Amino acid sequence: MFSGSIPALVTPFDAAGRFDEAAYRALIDWQIAEGSAGLVPCGTTGEAATLTADEHFAIVRVCVDQAAGRVPVIAGAGSNDTRVAIANLAAAKAAGADAALMVPPYYNRPNQEGIFRHFEAVAASADLPIMLYNVPGRTVTDIAVETMARLVAAYPKSFVAVKDATGALQRVTAQRLACGAGFAQLSGNDETALAFNASGGVGCVSVTANVAPRLCADFQAACAAGDYAAARVLHDRLFPLHLALFSDASPGPVKYAMTRVRPDFPTGLRLPMTWPSDASRAAVDAALATALAA
Fold first, then answer.
1. Active-site residue 255, yes or no?
2. 3-class secondary-structure state, position 269
3. Catalytic residue (choose from 24, 93, 133, 255)
4. pTM to 2 decimals?
């Protein structure tokens, strides 16, 4: 259901911190025209933590409306409160999303049985495909391979994919063997996407694709075709940008990069996120020059 380059969309805010719908619609059209294979609104890179529930799903509705069925929309919908996660999944479905991206409960730090029961309750609540988002660097909680396999076995129509941001490349093989070939694995880290795909991954939920969607789409297409020589050339070209976009707290660097490639893109972030440092901006500028050189 999901493969290729799927940007974790930034959310454009004006200088007063208000959602800029026109800029968002333009961003979506550009992403689709440049080859992005799907869209993730209101994830981490979309500053979901600073959105009210009403704002969050209003933005998802805008994304669905502008995408107009051209590519799937996977709405950020996770929560550390199972009741809220259930409500979020229902809201994502009502907004017209094709699937939901859901982290395991964060901060609470449940055990693996608690993670399973959380997602079991979510899956039972609404008929919408779920892409698990395993990002222990942010959530502290890690969805173990065995727990993931248990979820897929029990609810194969609900748990169809994972965005794996563990950085542990051996997990790709372990999860493929445990969850089956039909379970889609997408990298959550741009810089490891080459090795991730070589191990059986089928794409990336990407930060860099916000800025360089065509290059990221071409990279994923080369991997899908098994042309790893071409993929490596594109990977090397993009690699400095992958790193530069995390040279300060994300999404500060990627929002700065957006203003470099799309000068009319609004510059707002919501606290506690701030504009990146001078050193980070310099790193982004240098990386863009490498990635986007003719």
1. no
2. coil
3. 133
4. 0.96
163 is catalytic: yes
The span from the CA of 255 to the CA of 278, in Å, is 14
Which of the following is catalytic: 163, 228, 255, 256?
163
Return d(Cα 252, Cα 14) in angstroms, integer: 14
Q: Are residues 5 and 209 in contact, defined by beta-carbon separation less than 8 angstroms?
A: yes
pLDDT in tens, 68-112: 999 999 999 999 999 999 999 999 999 999 999 999 999 999 999
Distance CA 24, CA 231 (A): 29
- What's the rounded Cα separation, in Å, for the pair 165 and 140? 12
Cis peptide before 251 (omega within 30 of 0): yes
Q: What's the CA dihedral at 69, 72, 75, 78 to 10 degrees?
A: 150
Question: Which stretches within the chain are classed as H helix?
Answer: 21-33, 53-67, 82-94, 112-125, 136-139, 145-154, 170-179, 193-198, 213-224, 228-244, 252-261, 278-291
> pLDDT per residue over 187-206, tens digit each?
999 999 999 999 999 999 99
The DSSP element (H or E) to which 164 belongs, if any, is strand 159-164
- Residue pair 174/164 in contact by the 8 Å Cβ criterion: no
Closest CA relative to residue 190, chosen from 174, 170, 210, 162: 210
